[in-house]
Write a structure and sequence with these properties.
The chain has 474 residues and is an alpha/beta fold. 38% of the residues lie in helices and 21% in strands. The longest helix is centred in the middle third of the chain and has 20 residues.
């Protein structure tokens, strides 16, 4: 899995009437500090003028050109003193990327002269107003000391926000066959996804998949051999040879087709035609490919695949997401719900890898090989669903704890939430369905903030969690 790096346009700013040297010093100090973050690549304005700060009109076009040439993913305008709100807004207006607004806390006034050198907070108030005038969305961090835990944690959150927004740029989804006949719930508007979000869907048939599987088995290449050996060693020591062979081939085939069409996620039909043709379940193949950073979702759920990409982006593409059905309520506990699927949950998340295995499906009539049997780890999780109808799109967001519960077949966890009834009503009233994507993190604040920057997507957080998520930015 290749981690995301955010190319950050670093544009420190000052205003003439305050101490120039103090502003220059802070511009360098802030850049040196954020350069240590592994998830960021800085595109600065050094050399555009002798101060390396934005403070005069004649530099605006040059700054914009440099950021354009370097294809920045986000902008950061640290106020090294009061700042130049009019020039900031002109630079920000030239880009459709997340914008970070912050300034380092001022020192106390000189106790002899009464002079102040920077007045950064005062300038931040002004910049916020001018950015609003230009209809520019921005993320604000409280005026704090640079080396504070607050700045470190919120700056990392902003990079996560930028990663989610970036994940929606030129997004391509590989669609393997049509949706199962009964799954009207996963119907999506492909044309609208292209028009509104530039999301491209690349359809291939089950025959295309099988042809690629046959080629991979015949070629017996390294990726196929490694996958086969991994399954044999860790997941299916006693599995039937035909099932393991085809599962390894299917995983590599989906990977190859995704690369061929430059797709970042896969939505596969998964049953029942696939079993008639291949005689296996795709669950284990889906699980292994998801663990490599290409999320695979079930029942040809295109909007689910979009959700999975966004959720993986929250982790800067360092960790997998898990794609789940909201399945049943706990038989006794009011606020517990089972998240389950036939076996698509990544193997890396298995709570007990020693007992995790893949076998035959226990519900579908084919009883085909390839269903994964494991509970995933306990811990804080964020659950989300991107979806829409009637031309309007939103993203359901909620936080929960993955906990122990009754055992079941397939891959599963139980989640405990603050008020399941509110979750249930919000999900049923829609525009959502039973499919969601989850990550191990408390990331509602990141997803809600990211939706500000994705035009046409409204954040739809569980009401009981809304204030807490917003307050994490304070």
């Amino acid at each position: 899995m290749e981690a995301t790096k955010i190319r950050l346009g670093y544009c420190p700013t000052r205003r003439d009437v305050f101490d120039k040297n103090a502003a220059i010093e802070y511009g360098k100090k802030i850049k040196d500090y954020i350069s240590k973050f592994e998830d960021v690549e800085i595109v600065d304005i050094d050399g555009i003028n002798e101060e390396n700060l934005l403070f005069q009109d004649c530099d605006i076009e040059t700054v914009i050109k440099r950021f354009c040439e370097n294809e920045i993913d986000a902008l950061f305008f640290p106020h090294c003193n009061f700042g130049s709100e009019n020039r900031i807004s002109q630079v920000a207006k030239a880009f459709d990327v997340p914008v970070l607004l912050w300034g380092p806390r001022d020192e106390e006034p000189d106790q002899i002269t009464g002079l102040r050198t920077r007045d950064t907070q005062c300038g931040l108030f002004a910049t916020g107003k001018v950015l609003r005038r230009h209809n520019i969305e921005f993320t604000y961090l409280t005026n704090t000391v640079l080396e504070s835990d607050y700045f470190k944690e919120r700056f990392e959150k902003f990079l996560q926000v930028a990663s989610v927004v970036k994940s929606m740029k030129d997004l391509r989804i590989l669609q393997i066959s049509t949706r199962p006949e009964a799954f009207c719930s996963v119907i999506c508007n492909e044309g609208e996804l292209l028009e509104k979000f530039n999301v491209h869907v690349y359809p291939v048939t089950l025959n295309d998949l099988v042809v690629e599987m046959d080629r991979i088995i015949a070629e017996n290449g390294e990726d196929y051999q490694n996958t086969y050996n991994f399954i044999r060693t860790y997941i299916s020591k006693n599995g039937n040879e035909d099932g393991v062979t085809k599962t390894a081939a299917m995983k590599v085939a989906m990977k190859n087709l995704a690369k061929q069409y430059r797709c970042r996620a896969v939505a596969i039909q998964c049953w029942n035609s696939l079993q008639d043709i291949t005689h296996i379940m795709p669950c284990l193949a889906n699980s292994l490919l998801s663990d490599e950073g290409i999320p695979v979702v079930c029942e040809t759920d295109i909007n689910g695949a979009i959700t999975a990409v966004m959720m993986q982006a929250v982790t800067m593409n360092k960790k997998s997401q898990f794609f789940a059905d909201l399945t049943i309520r706990h038989h006794e506990k009011e606020n517990m719900e089972m998240l389950w699927h036939c076996g698509v949950f990544p193997y890396s998340m298995a709570k007990n890898k020693e007992s995790a295995y893949a076998g035959e499906h226990w519900i579908l009539p084919s009883k085909a090989f390839g269903t994964c049997m494991w509970q995933i780890e306990n811990g804080d999780v964020t659950i989300a669903r991107f979806d829409g109808d009637h031309g309007e799109y939103s993203m359901f967001v909620g936080e929960a704890k993955a906990v122990d519960g009754p055992t079941t077949g397939g891959s599963y966890t139980w989640i405990e939430v603050d008020n399941w009834a509110k979750w249930e009503h919000k999900l049923v009233y829609g525009p959502y369905i039973h499919h969601v994507s989850g990550i191990y993190d408390k990331a509602a604040d990141v997803l809600v903030e990211a939706c500000k920057y994705i035009k046409g997507v409204k954040a739809d957080i569980v009401e009981t969690q809304e204030n807490e998520a917003r307050d994490r930015w304070l």
